[in-house]
Amino acid sequence: MPTLFYHAGACSLAPHIVLEWTGAPYQAVAVEFGSAELRAVNPAGAVPVLREDDGWTLTQAGAILHHLACKHPEADLAGGDGLRAQAELDRWSSFFTGDLHPAFFPLFTPQRYTTSREQADREAVQEAARKLVRQRLALLDAHLEGRDWILGRRSVIDAYAFPMLRWAAKLLPEGTQGWAHVQALHDRIAADPAVQTVLAREEGT
């Protein structure tokens, strides 16, 4: 059966949720970043990695989510049919891949974004990252006004958003309470029984 290699709390949470939403059988394997086990399926040492039955592997969260939406049309997770629906899926996948996700990188590893070893300078890098995350969340919040889901119906894109909304809630001093529509989306996804199953698996509860 298909195998997802994931790391708890990482963006691999998104395809983990989507696999659960499809209802199709799969295996989930927890791995450490850069481990030999992970590098055997992805030389970059990053998650997520999806390995299909025939041994074909796919990396990059956005690509995996798009693949799963196409592979399981019965799950209705592509956000709609037609050219523009596909374009909206691609647009928001690109937003999370290229805008929101990278905004968190300086928060996770500020030492990579400055040559200074001073703690104050690294904290300044992190504060700049928080400002950028807030800007991206404001864009998402404005889009969600009048919508329950990012594409108007539940899709792989909502799953993609979820780990990043969890990061924001944890890493921003104010959490996500200041963006009511973003908070509502987070809570809506978190309440889903399939999502709770995945979170329990990843958190070992």
Automatic annotation (TrEMBL):
Residues 82-205 form the GST C-terminal domain. Residues 1-76 form the GST N-terminal domain. Coiled coil: none annotated. This is Glutathione S-transferase family protein. It comes from Paracoccus simplex. The lineage of its organism: Bacteria, Pseudomonadati, Pseudomonadota, Alphaproteobacteria, Rhodobacterales.
